[in-house]
Amino acid sequence: METANSSNILASTFYLTGIPGYEEFHHWISIPFCLLYLIGIMGNCTILHVVWTDPRLHEPMYYFLAMLSLTDMGMSLPTVISLFRVLWSISREIQFNTCVVQMFFIHTFSFTESSVVLAMALDRYVAICHPLRYATILTPTLITKIGIVALLRSAFAMIPLLARLAFFPFCHSHVLSHSYCLHQDMIRLACANTKFNVIYGLVLITLLWGMDSLGIFVSYVFILHSVLKISSQEGRFKALNTCASHICAVLILYVPMIGLSIVRRFAKHSSPLIHIFMAHIYLLVPPVLNPVIYSVKTKQIRQGVLCLLFPLRISSSVM
């Protein structure tokens, strides 16, 4: 009985990987990672606080921005504990159940972020193409429903994929390729037919990310068509400038995602460092850069952040 129990425990234990070949420098490597996580958490919490407390920002555009901040943190925070446990040499072990939960949050919020970016594109479409109906179309109730549907769509889509992992035997190596758990990484270790997971995963990516990116593209086609009808050049520039932050958010999300997919598809035998580097870029770049870009490019957010950081100086200048 003791032997059987110990074998079951070992079978449900996986081992995370830090930076291969640089194990002796893990403590030093953890410093920039720690700074990036702190910048991302502080930046997104600042955005959420400013949108929540400033009545001037209680508009659809900023509600969607708050959703983006929440999904950014939801996608990156589940990796914090396992990453620093590896880099600080505390433990490389992670239990199967913990691994599945971590996968669920990472993939769910990744798909949700894509939906939020699509919703923000629709927000820009309504603001530019139907400005007089902007407030009546994008009501707080509709925005809340969009957020809930985006989250539930992503969560329910992941359940069949992750539920099947419980029935897979893992009789080979239990060493994962990253410092956190990913579905495509775990099925590679399964000693079973993973055809359903592979096909379902591809269909999921095609339907969710594919349809979201198509929706964003179509939205900007209509936006450009509407902007080109504006007679003055200044009016065109002003209209397009309201989309600048969102275009940056689209690039920040999809460029690392496409890069990671290309590396996994066409560079399977390349250095593990490339795969690890691209995976960390995908999870860390959006949470770090999105608050910075929106703070710099959006006047209302910039003023709100400045009021939060320097309340006395800003209030005196206003007076």
Automatic annotation (TrEMBL):
Native source organism of the sequence: Bos indicus (Zebu)
GO molecular function: G protein-coupled receptor activity; olfactory receptor activity
Highest rank taxon of the organism: Eukaryota
Topology term for the membrane: Multi-pass membrane protein
PANTHER family xref list: OLFACTORY RECEPTOR (PTHR26450:SF390), OLFACTORY RECEPTOR 56B1-RELATED (PTHR26450)
Transmembrane portions of the chain: 28-51, 63-88, 100-122, 134-159, 198-223, 244-267, 273-293
Biological classification of the source: Eukaryota, Metazoa, Chordata, Craniata, Vertebrata
Subcellular location: Cell membrane; Membrane
Keywords, sorted A to Z: Cell membrane, G-protein coupled receptor, Membrane, Olfaction, Receptor, Sensory transduction, Transducer, Transmembrane, Transmembrane helix
Family from the record: Belongs to the G-protein coupled receptor 1 family.
Protein name, entry field: Olfactory receptor
Record's GO cellular component terms: plasma membrane
Function per UniProt: Putative odorant or sperm cell receptor.
GO biological process, one term: cellular response to lipid
Predominant localisation class: membrane
Domain G-protein coupled receptors family 1 profile: 43-294
